[in-house]
Amino acid sequence: MTDSETYGGTPVADYTDPYPRFTREMKESHTILVPDMLPWHFDLLTHVMRSEGYRVEVLHNEGRAVIDEGLKHVHNDTCFPALCVIGQYLDALKSGKYDVDKTAVLITQTGGGCRASNYLPLIRKALKAEFPQVPVLSLNFSGLEKGNGLELNLTMLKKLAYSVFYGDLIMTCFNQTKPYERTEGSSAAVRVSLVEALRKALDSGEYKRLKYYTGRILEAFSAVDADRSERKIRVGIVGEIYVKYSPLGNSHLEDFLLSEGCEPVVPALMDFLLYCVVNTLNDARFYGRRDAKTLLFGIVYRWLYAKEKTIIGMMKEHGVFEPLHDFEHLRAHADRVIHQGVKMGEGWLIPAEMAALCESGVENIVCAQPFGCLPNHIAGKGAARTVKTLFPEANIVPVDYDPSATKVNQENRIKLMLATAREHAAEKQRA
Question: Which residue segments constitute the domains of the chain, with CATH numbers given?
Answer without folding.
Answer: 13-152 (3.40.50), 231-267+325-430 (3.40.50)
